[in-house]
Amino acid sequence: MTQMTSLHEERLDFVFRTIKATGARRVLDLGCGSGSLLYRLLADGQFERVTGLEDSGVSLRQARSVLANYLNETPDRIRLIRGSYAESNPDLVGYEAAAMVETIEHVHPEQLSRVERTVFGEYRPGSLFMTTPNREYNPLFDLAPGEFREEDHKFEWDRIKFQRWARGVADRNGYDVRFGGIGEFVPDVGHPTQTAFFTRRD
Prior knowledge:
7-stranded mixed sheet, methyltransferase, SAM-dependent_MTases_sf, single chain, 6 helices
């Protein structure tokens, strides 16, 4: 679906610009998939340490292929880790910025509190930029009521639910959060992609 493909590219560029603007040099990509955001980060000299975490072995293999040139660099700036952001990992603590691009909707709802504890309570990045589908926009992609954009999605939030969840996460963990969107804005519906930008208060 070309509409979705161009949105995907627009989203990655938007996330890249947002993270670059924070001035971060050490960035964590949680649910890095096949490495498209990592590739953008590594192509920019601002970023000294980039780590991608991914649960899917298939996606990690694709990422290794996409990032092959960078993986052979000395000193190495990129690290790929197989794992889940619902699990503690001391190596993922202390990053200046993190991204979660179109990944939270793949989490089972009953796992969300665990993800919150791990990402915001333990990893505690200085800032975190999150994107997720806006369910209200789905009819404009010709999706049937209740149909998700991808089969593997466990839920898709409307804007009110997403903002309620994200505000709760921010309040409980000492972050501020502001909301936005990516893609064409449609009145009463919003953007196809909704965003939350968390910034640690301390």
